[in-house]
Write a structure and sequence with these properties.
rod-shaped, alpha+beta, about 160 residues
Length: about 160
């Protein structure tokens, strides 16, 4: 330190002023890029993560609220077997079923070669309102504004 002090004392007042200004600028750059910007960026990232979490939470709460009436409604009331009911309701909605296969646990796998998505999802919503729930759903685009469908249905409460 004494060598640095001796060197600084040996400088002219103008050189000492320039060294002081350079040190102040260096300190400002170090503070800005080493402390202020990283902390500000971390706070911005935290705000973004919080906003994303709040948005996802609202979506989950909305989904739970939509499912709650179905859970409280009790078992579905269908006359006859699930297979006969699905065949009848698909016919009434204008869907041609390509396969209907009973599954374990009172489920039913069905397939459709071609269905318009809007009509399909409206039909599914109608089924769910009547207590027939979709357990699995797979759709594939046919390229002509229709989809092929494979889904598994089961009665609510079973």
């Amino acid at each position: 330190m004494s060598a640095l002090r001796a060197w600084l004392i040996g400088l002219s007042p103008r050189e000492r002023l320039l060294i002081g200004v350079a040190a102040a600028l260096a300190l400002t750059v170090i503070l800005w890029f080493g402390i202020i910007r990283p902390v500000r960026d971390a706070l911005d990232a935290a705000r973004d993560r919080e906003l994303d979490a709040v948005t996802r939470l609202a979506g989950v709460r909305g989904a739970v609220a939509a499912v709650a009436p179905l859970a409280k409604a009790g078992p579905a009331q269908v006359s006859g077997s699930l297979e006969a009911t699905i065949r009848e309701r698909a016919n009434a909605a204008g869907f041609a079923l390509t396969n209907v296969t009973p599954q374990a646990d009172n489920a039913l796998a069905i397939g459709m070669a071609s269905a318009r998505p809007a009509a399909l999802f409206a039909w599914i919503a109608e089924l769910e309102g009547q207590g027939i729930l979709v357990d699995q759903l797979q759709t594939t685009d046919n390229g002509d504004q229709t989809v092929s469908v494979a889904m598994t249905l089961r009665l609510r409460g079973l």
